[in-house]
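A student in our group prepared the protein record below, which I am reviewing. Here is the record exactly as it was handed to me.
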Amino acid sequence: MKKVLYGVLSITALTAKATAGAFNRVTNDSQQSYGNGNNSSIGPQINQAYFQRKALVEAQKKKVFSQLADTTAMPKNYGKTIKQYHYLPILDDRNINDQGLDATGAVLANGNLYGSSKDMGTIVGKIPVLTENGGQVNRVGFTRIEITGSLAKFGIYEAYSQESLDFDTDADLEMHIHREMLYAAHEITEDQLQADLLNAAGVIRYGGSAIADPEVTGNSADVISVPTYEGLMKLSTTLDENRTPKNTKIITGTRLIDTETINAARVMFIGSEVLPTLRRMKDLHNEKAFVEVRKYAAAGKVLNNEEGAIDSFRIVVAPEMMHWAGAGKADDGSNAGYRTTNGNYDIFPMLVVGDESFTTIGFQTSKKGTKFKISHVPPKATTTDPYGETGTYSIKWYYGFMALRPERIALYKVVAEI
């Protein structure tokens, strides 16, 4: 959070440096104030809506995780909790109930026939055949689970003096402040969504021979926890078994209805630290596995920050991708060139997000308006500011997350090269 807020305020430092103190920050209340610059070439801007629309379109180009979001419309007067029923398939091991009867009418432990089994003997033995007389046989049961998510309100604000607009050398200062406020709010929601997706993953695999975080290693004496083509194939197989679609819908514009479908792909998010390893990856025939996005971009829609594809995964580099610093195995001194923190290896996630796996109240707009609100209070006389020299900008929004199908969200935990 501090990093994001610093991004908002850094425009002050940059402007101050460029104009030799023309735009300073008062230390006691962090208010933007005019220093000793020249008069602005124009007066204050009045078309606030234009600033917001322009900034939102620019922010859209920076979307990474939220471009996959299914967005939930939260009606008023229904509290701050999102709830939804998830009905489990009949033929699923998770469908546990006591309503089942087999083909002879005997009570089954679970009313899911043969569940998720792929064993031929099990399946054939529980096929729901009927006799001439029928009867109370082959009864199945249903199971539903309730999934929930919560909403919360967030916001940031900025204060400024009237002179900072009237005399600053940047005629577009007000527009820039609007843009940076929207950028910060957008990045905060991206970080929140990323953290929720990482925590919601229902499928976790590790590079090398590791089976838990403390075993992730880059020691040359161990089996190094790097991503492999075989590992990606096994991850894809698990997602296939979890019925994760390969057709992924993405939000391509600033309207919720503006979506497109990416065919035959699952989206994998990585940090830039992992990209060099993927570019060198070889497939089962010792050929280059990584296909650059430029080789297939003309055939369909690509995602923001998409770099290429490996097997059935489309690789998207998230500039702000999180990782777990020093959460891996201790460096025994034989480090083969991988990142560490305080003597332990850093763990980097390769995050796969399947279609319809989560829903969120995102940083989007709809025909009925925006899911964020910018308030601008221009300088005016008040009891606390009798001379009317101080104004404020603020932006607030709601964010909520709910994992619909955690089994469609997967993590591949690996080390990254220095």
About this structure: Helices lie at 2-18, 48-60, 120-125, 162-166, 173-200, 229-241, 275-279. Residues 1-30, 36-46, 254-262, 365-370 have pLDDT under 50 and may be disordered.
